[in-house]
Specification:
mainly alpha, globular
């Protein structure tokens, strides 16, 4: 049982699978965003992608018949676009200044904030197996993305890394907000509040930046793909799974997005692969297995 009430074993398993699939789509976003940032202003790019995502989620709620203006009476519906605005502004700007692999590592660290927040605010049980999985997963991410060379996180990309840490904190806050919001609205209604009004302040930042570089037509498919398949769809999947598996389990499973992001960076951005990277990836997926086993035990 979690804070939403009793859930069945199949629902928990479905939540785990859907969350893992969401993490793969989210993992692809690092490389896709990095490619787009070569020609696009980060505020414009993030505004357009979240705008595309908003249209996808709005269409989903209209088709399902779950759209209602009453959801905007909830305070969470207004906190969501504010947190998401800061998240995207920092994430896209940060990725324009650092590598996709480093960005994946830092964003993956949100689990270190989610875990204590879940214990403090929602009294979720950690359990020894999950704690060990959490530690192993984060250690695996460090090995995977740094090759045990911590100096790789220093230098000219420091500002980008700091911005990504702010984005990481915003992701942890989104987990907390989701827990409150899902008590009063369906998962798709909540995802709609995350998306719907967020493009406005991002576009405002773009106009204030004074950048008037036009968007080339050949970038339109990339923008649509990022907005739909790297933003709206995985967010819907992630929030749906969150209802059944809890904050800690969800955040640890989402660690796999960082592993997938690094592999895509190797294949598409020509980053080098070595034995330490492969070891780190193996540690991450072992950590996910441990969290899944811990979920099934209930006592953990």
């Amino acid at each position: 049982m979690n804070e939403y009430g009793e859930v069945s074993g199949p629902q928990v398993k479905a939540g785990i699978i859907v969350t893992f699939l969401a993490s793969l789509l989210l993992g692809s976003s690092y490389v896709v965003i990095k490619v787009g940032l070569e020609d696009l202003n980060p505020y414009l790019f993030s505004g357009m992608t979240i705008g595309i995502g908003a249209m996808v989620v709005l269409a989903y709620t209209l088709i399902k018949g779950t759209f209602t203006w009453s959801i905007f009476k909830r305070w969470e519906a207004w906190a969501a676009p504010l947190v998401t605005f800061v998240l995207l502004a920092c994430q896209y700007t940060g990725l324009s200044l650092t590598t996709a692999s480093t960005g994946a590592l830092i964003i993956g660290a949100n689990v270190l904030l989610v875990a204590p927040l879940s214990v403090l605010l929602f009294h979720e049980k950690m359990g020894r197996l999950r704690l060990l999985g959490l530690f192993l997963g984060m250690l695996g991410l460090v090995v995977l993305t740094t090759g045990l060379d911590m100096g790789s996180l220093d230098g000219g990309a420091l500002l980008g890394n700091l911005l990504l840490f702010v984005a990481t904190f915003c992701i942890a806050l989104t987990y907390v907000l989701s827990k409150y919001a899902l008590r009063h609205m369906s998962f798709d209604q909540w995802v709609l509040t995350i998306h719907l009004f967020t493009p406005l302040p991002l576009f405002a930042l773009y106009f204030l930046s004074g950048d008037s570089t036009p968007v080339e037509m050949d970038l339109v498919p990339l923008i649509i793909f990022t907005g739909a398949m790297c933003t709206a769809v995985p967010t819907l999947m992630w929030v749906w799974g969150l209802k059944y598996i809890g904050m800690v389990n969800s955040s640890v499973i989402i660690l796999s997005e960082s592993a997938f992001a690094v592999f895509l960076s190797i294949m598409i951005l020509d980053e080098n692969v070595d034995a330490l990277m492969l070891l780190g990836a193996a540690m991450v997926f072992l950590a996910i297995f441990m969290v899944v086993k811990g979920t099934g035990r209930g006592s953990d």
